[in-house]
Specification:
It comes from Ectopseudomonas alcaliphila. This is Tetratricopeptide repeat protein. InterPro entries: TPR-like_helical_dom_sf. By secondary structure, the chain is of the alpha+beta class. Helices cover about 35% and strands about 25% of the residues. It has 8 helices and 10 strands. It has helices spanning about 10-15, 30-40, 45-60, 65-80, 85-95, 100-115, 115-120, 165, and strands at about 125-135, 135-145, 150-155, 155-160, 170, 175-180, 185-190, 200-205, 205-210, 230-235. The strands form 2 sheets. An 8-stranded antiparallel beta barrel has the order 1-2-3-6-7-8-9-10. A two-stranded antiparallel ribbon has the order 4-5. It is globular. The N and C termini lie close together (about 10 Å).
Amino acid sequence: MLIRSKFLLLPLLVGLAGAVQATEECATTVQCNQVGSAAYQDGRYEQAIEAFERQLRRVENGDTAQLELALNNLILANLRAGDAGMARAWLGVALDNHLNGSSTRLHLRKVTEALDYPALSANPVGRYLRYSGQAVWSELLISEDGNGGYLASFSPVRVGARVEQYGPAAIGELDGKLVGDGVHMRLEDAGLGRDCEVQVLREGIELRVQEVYGDGCQDYGGMGISVDGRYIKVSR
């Protein structure tokens, strides 16, 4: 049974404004890379990841080489921290940006070796992430309902221009029951309107969520919030 986590919101609302005190000097891309690298060399992987996330936010819409460096920093730091699922998620961001430098190719092999794909893809239960930009992730937790079915808990996030200062621009919460064969499912008992449908298609460690957009269909969160998109499973 999964325990619902606010991992995505607390590090944003608290961590991004407060817990990053350990990386106060991380104001520029170069500084963030230096701070993160120093923490990584000392084995302080949590602090390294925080610095590398700040590094990513400073280059995400800029130089491609710097973007690839920040993402590879995050992949490697998460691998060394023992979180192969999160490393795979960051690798997915790199691949979605069509990055294929030598470091990315090397980490592709390392992640493949470290991640237990058969175990992760064995059933729908687990924690899934959808990248929302600015080093922020939306979350989906799927758990067993005790009767052979599954429950879904979505925590979608929409980031804004100043996420480090103020947190996400919008957040949401949508819970319901997944009905289907474990591959193609639909969300029920979620309090949505009659014409507001959410469908889930699972393939391996990836999920594709599709929802109907219409009046009242996205009332589970703030302006511009949605659960639609592609998710990757990071843990069971």
